[in-house]
Amino acid sequence: xxxxxxxxxxxxxxxxxxxxxxxxxxxxxxxxxxxxxxxxxxxxxxxxxxxxxxxxxxxxxxxxxxxxxxxxxxxxxxxxxxxxxxxxxxxxxxxxxxxxxxxxxxxxxxxxxxxxxxxxxxxxxxxxxxxxxxxxxxxxxxxxxxxxxxxxxxxxxxxxxxxxxxxxxxxxxxxxxxxxxxxxxxxxxxxxxxxxxxxxxxxxxxxxxxxxxxxxxxxxxxxxxxxxxxxxxxxxxxxxxxxxxxxxxxxxxxxxxxxxxxxxxxxxxxxxxxxxxxxxxxxxxxxxxxxxxxxxxxxxx
Length: 301
Ligand SMILES: [Zn+2]
Hints:
- This protein is an alpha/beta fold.
- The protein has helices at 25-37, 53-56, 62-74, 86-107, 135-145, 163-169, 217-234, 260-270, 288-299; strands spanning 4-8, 43-47, 112-114, 152-156, 175-182, 206-211, 238-243, 276-280.
- The longest helix is centred in the N-terminal third of the chain and has 22 residues, at 86-107.
- Residues 158-160, 244, 246, 282 line the site of zinc ion.
């Protein structure tokens, strides 16, 4: 097996949203316990750096950054699911810094994962669904601004549509966004339909693949094959995987029925994608660390 680079910082835990959320001491602690207890995957942990306001402004409006800072000080929720205070705001800067580092390392052909990222509900001027800033949109813009890449693909496997990422890149032909998610008529955020394919120069660079509640492994993996074909055809300079595990059958929010073993198969399929930055995203159940491990076992097999 190839070695894995893991990006992490204890500062991430400032973004702790509770035990059922991936961003919690319990979940990250259990993940590190499991990966240290096995011998198949060799890994190295890298400290996530702190991002800057300038980084954030590459994908968000100055007005929104100001609103978030004001809301953090005054403890005003950005939306009912998205509380923000000075602690979570500080954690956000490290999550973003970690994702920027993750993309930079993937660009050097490393197998790399940021253990928290993929804040895909955050749009250019709004926070939503536990997401304050869109870390992967910021990281893509940062690498573009440094001329390290021209094009990027985001492949989003969270059960919820990546609506914030879609919004940020909707008119941009340089970033292909692909999201496989539960039919938005039956699931938050209520958008992400297949007819939403991009606008202006970006027409064709937004792909939504929707599946009904109750979707099981076979149909899911078929959709993933389609998504990977699209990704390979676009052949971007970098690829970003938003790996929500709220597609699991025991998830508290999602209504798909994937098995624990499905995540091994997802990992195996994504093994063939070059320059892939992996971000561990959403999931609302106690098995999150186990599913992350199954994915990595398949991905590095
Ligand atoms: Zn989700």
